[in-house]
Amino acid sequence: MSGRWVEVAQGVYARRYVELDQTLGLVVGDTHCLVIDTGTDEVHGASMAAAVRFVTPLPWSVVITHAHFDHFFGTAAFLPTSVIAHERCRTAILADGERQRRAWSARYRSDGKAEQAERLASAKLVAPMEVITSSVLMDLGGRTVTLVHPGPAHTDHDVFVHVPDADVVFAGDLVEQGAPPSAGPDAHVSDWPAALDRILALNPAVVVPGHGDPVDAAFVRRQRDELARTR
Ligand SMILES: [Zn+2]
After folding, report:
1. C or N: which end of the chain has fewer Cβ atoms within 10 Å?
2. CA torsion, points 133, 70, 192, 222, in degrees to nearest 10?
3. How far does the centroid of ligand 1 lie from the alpha carbon of residue 113, in Å?
4. Distance 154 CA to ligand 1 centre (A)
């Protein structure tokens, strides 16, 4: 599964994929690195892991931004390591992961994507073992990042990653470029603009969405206003 790196700041990378127009993330410190989301299945996860190893040999931790299948079914490729998420993300992966696997495998099959369906069907489901409730600092060596739950929005357990020394935020699916934000049955649309205000309050130079190309704060502000209008 091929992807391409976009270096959005020094040691801060977005990994772009054609499938689902998805974007995974990497923040590299002096002693550790942090991988943001793990992809649609173990093959995807393994290709991300190999791409990370092309950038850095440092030990990694993994953060899962939320419990939608394309963000966590690649986690097994990164083990053993600590896998961090909001506590309700862990609950949702355990409660709903197998249903998502069945639904998306069926969808891939009916779209004629048999190989992709098989990969998802055989991926190991890994529940995050380290949970956060509001926010937590992570020291990567010479660089500290913050994992923040901004309240209910795209789901009730989204986590974004702030890299303050680089003015970068990895937003997960709180922000989407190239398509409107995806508001499924588990979204909290009326609360979503306030979650984006939490990101905007950090004055980010670059915001990396869960799908699409990196954007600026003005893009996020427009998306916030659109969500506020449609709620
Ligand atoms: Zn999502």
Report:
1. C
2. 130
3. 21
4. 7
Give residue 22 CA to ligand 1 midpoint distance, Å: 10
Taking the centre of ligand 1 as the mean of its atom positions, its distance from the CA of residue 114, in whole angstroms, is 23
Residue ranges of the chain with per-residue pLDDT less than 70: 231
What tens digit of pLDDT does each residue of 87-119 get?
Answer: 999 999 999 999 999 999 999 999 999 999 999
Q: pTM of the full predicted structure?
A: 0.97
